Amino acid sequence: MSESSHNTKSHQTLDEDTPEVQIAEFIDAVKQSRDNGNILVDLLPERIPLYLNRSSNETIRIRGYTLAAFEQVGLPEAALPYVLEELENGRDAYLVAAAAKALRGLDNPTNGVIPFLFKAVENVRGADDSLTFENYRPQWPLTTYTTALKEIFYTFGWLGAHASDALADLQTLLEDRRDDFSATIRREIEDAIECIRSDTKNVGTDCCARPTSLSPQVVRSGRERGDTNSINDVELEDQEGNALTFRDFFCRSPSIVVFFYSRCDNPNKCSLTVTKLARLQQAIRQEGLEGQLQTAAITYDPGYDLPRRLRAYGQNRGVLFSDKNRFLRTRSGFEKLQDYFSLGVNFIGSIVNRHRIELFILDDKGRVAASFTRLQWDIQEVLDQAKLLLRSSCCSQ
Amino acid sequence: MDVEEYLKQYKKELESGDDERTRYREFLNKSRSVSERLEGLESSANSSDQDEVSESINIIRDRDEDVQIRVTAIRGISNEIGESPELIDLLLSLVRDNTEPVALREPALRVLQQLSFSSVVFRTKRPEYLDVLRSIIDDQDAELRQQAIGVLAKEKDEYVQRRLLEGLEDPSKALIPPEKAIQMLGFDIHAEHYPILRDMVKSPPNPAAKKEAVRLLAADAASKNMLAEILSDKGEDKEVRRTSAIALESLDPAEFEDRAKQIALDEDESDDLRATSLSGLGHFSSLEAVSIDSSFDESVAQLRDKTASEDLRRAAEMYMNRRGGRLQSTQPEELKSVQPLDENQMMGTEPVTVQEPSPNILAVIMGRVRKIIEAIKGNPKPPTPKTPAGGSSV
Questions:
Q1: pLDDT tens track for A48-74
Q2: N or C: which end of chain A has fewer CB within 10 A?
């Protein structure tokens, strides 16, 4: 089920003006009944009005409280990409803890989530925090609290036999890296190991089982791609200050385009995306496709990411600029791009408050032929998809 | 430094290390008076001897002991505290306990702050640390409150942001003065304080708050017009206008250039604002954009030659240097002191001269040397440096 197909009452009644306390009451009401998970999924897409003009921390509170609620109401498959995104890339302890809790709402546990849990351990190890989901917007001092690492290791234990593949790595954490964890967390790891070992049920061969919703890739055939009439005249400016339109750059050759902004404070998102873009450029050159495939990065923050910032951000991460490889900002019409690409982003004023990882492969008419969103994209997979596009373009000529 | 010189210095360190250990043992001696115990003890005095560490811990825990002695004991074993989760817990409990004197809690908090940077073990205690900090933002002592708030604000902590915003919206709930609250919120550009900052510029509780609000609006593209108006407002406070110039340059260099040029040549403007404008044009504006305005360049050259203000003259000169010294000065030959810059100097890529390390860095290095010497004296075999625990995959 795609993110854009959700269309329920809950998503429509909560918006930017809804006080947080009301949102929390809504979530608390939904939590009363198991199998209400689909209602909460509607609160997760970044672009919905609920998140408009809310600060990053407010957005984190709402999303975290929502994710944590899946433990009680059940975790539908449509919510899984959001949960895994947080484990794979999140750096906020509240959200990571919530995602770990959310996994415990799965009706069918799978060992496909194990790599994401281990990634979350590394992401949050130096940034763990004291937190609670007992109530929304808690006041300190707290009588009890949990932490992201606690929740992650508790989830390992909850997976039981499904996490038997994780035993060796958990043992390594305990023995070779014990100084990385407090005594409390080491006990959690020990408990998790004990739970996994003592769960003797036969879970079959779900080795490397990865639900289809975990794939970040969506491919569109020619007929599904629509047209670019709404954005062809969007005015852009590149990293050298050259003015051009969307049509000028994107409607002459297939392109790979990512979205980013220089003030992103999550190194697993924009900084890594642009660094990988530089490596993708290298792979394109090595495959001899430099004249055939363009690359671009468009900023979510055109008011701040002026040409000098675009240039510096790219250069510092190994990007090579040329006529076919540019960083761009909109001079006007960013909302049109936002709609055309269904960008997973929202703002407080002009500043991004939340966004997902997103990469699009465009055909030579600027239409979206494939998208890789939310989870980390693999450079070779992206390149292979782009090559398929090039081949299909050749065949159709 | 040659080998002989190094050996002399090493021997001197050993001797002074001996003196320091003697003084620390005297500090631990409860039969002496407080002033005797503290006398001659350097503020950086430290001990890693296990018996001395145990005695120091007992002193820290002893509520009947003099506060200054307890504080000195904390500092005396700060390195050991950084390597022990239990000792970190001890300090955390001291900071949290509002029945302990502030004169003890505050230095304990400072030691914890230092350890948050220097101690690998401390990283595992981050949740407890943040929990304690949040617990004391309502403390009766203003200094302790502000310290805790400062640390949390730099962490972009959602709880402290929430509380600071509450305080700005309702002064009866304010934890710290509004200009400080704004400064704290400014550590996070993703916070929701920009509408409050804009309101604060229009109706400031005090001049300091207004200036701070203007400074932080440099991150808010929606405030461009407001900043431009402040810069051009001759009735506005000078410092606020200067702050808005810097903020506007960051947000909209083209708009800044237009306004800065007008200000630089306006004789009704204050000299220091004119100098600020010229400095901004010289440092940050694109060389291509400014260099095509030859009439402005000529005006700057004349300004440099005629102004009585030293700051303005220097700013004009710097601006001209950035233009490559292409401008002809109207000064007499003997007053021409400006040499044209070569390309490397203009682009800031000239070779860098290595400077001597600052005294502060030397003090840190010498502190570590002393620790190594202590270890050698306790164990004839030289200590091997610890390798960092684990490795981050991110």
A1: 999 999 989 999 999 999 999 999 999
A2: C
Say yes or no for a CB contact (<8 Å) between A126 and B134: no
| Length of chain A in terms of residues written | 397
B255 to A67, A308, B318: CA distances (angstroms): 44, 16, 21
For residue A89, the chain B residue with the least C-alpha distance is B394
Chain B nearest CA to A192, separation (Å): 19
Q: Tell if the CB–CB gap between A60 and B162 is shorter than 8 Å.
A: no
B31 C-beta neighbours (distance < 10 Å), count: 6
Question: What's A146's DSSP letter?
Answer: B
pLDDT on residue A2 = 47
Q: pLDDT tens digits, residue range A308-325? A: 999 999 999 999 999 999
**Of A359, A235, A352, whose CA–CA distance to A304 is shortest?**
A352
Q: What is the pTM assigned to this prediction?
A: 0.82
- A163: pLDDT strictly greater than 50: yes
- CA of B390: which chain A residue's CA is closest? A177
pLDDT at B158: 93
CA torsion B10-B14-B19-B24 (nearest 10°) is 110
User: What's the full length of chain B, in residues?
Assistant: 394
Q: B-chain residues within 8 Å CB-CB of A126?
A: 123, 126, 392
Dihedral of alpha carbons A27, A30, A32, A34, sign? negative
Q: Give the whole-angstrom CA distance, residue A45 versus residue A345.
A: 9
CB spacing of B192 vs A183 below 8 angstroms: no
- Give the single-character DSSP code of B203: S
Can you state the percent helix, strand and coil of chain B, rounding each to 5?
Answer: 70, 0, 30
Compare CB distances from A129 to B120, B127, B190 and report the shortest one's residue: B127
- Residues of chain A neighbouring B251 (CB-CB closer than 8 A): 303-304
- A179–B121 CB contact, under 8 Å: yes
A331, A237 contact by CB (below 8 A): yes
Residue the block writes with tokens 């997103």: A358
The span from the CA of B215 to the CA of A303, in Å, is 17
Q: Strand, coil or helix: what is A359?
A: strand
* Interface-testing mutation among B156, B192, B197, with chain A (most A C-beta atoms within 10 A): B192
- Enumerate the β-bridge partners of residue A362: A255, A368
Q: Distances in Å between the alpha carbon of A385 and those of A350, A379, A388?
A: 33, 10, 5
Distance, in angstroms, between B223 CA and closest chain A CA?
10
Residue A222 tokens, joined: 């020619």
Structure tokens given for A382:
């992206």
| Contact criterion met (CB below 8 Å) for B259 and B232 | yes
- Please state the rounded mean pLDDT for residues B264-291: 78
Helix axes A56-73, A80-89, angle to 10 degrees: 130
By CB neighbour count within 10 A (0-12 exposed, 13-18 middle, 19+ buried), where does B194 fall? buried
**Gyration radius of chain B's alpha carbons:** 28
A86-95 mean pLDDT:
98
Which residues of chain B have a CB within 8 Å of the CB of A304?
A: 219, 221, 251
* ipTM here: 0.89
Write b or e for each residue in A154-178: b if 16 or more Cβ atoms lie within 10 A of its Cβ, otherwise e.
bbbbbbbbbbeebeebbeebbeebb
Q: Residues B182, B193: contact at Cβ < 8 Å?
A: yes
Contact criterion met (CB < 8 Å) for B189 and A306 = no
Among B121, B123, B127, select the one facing A130 at the smallest CB separation.
B127
Q: Any CB–CB contact under 8 A between B222 and chain A?
A: yes
A 303-322 near B (Cβ less than 8 A): 303-304, 306, 308
Cα B178 from Cα A278, distance rounded (Å): 44
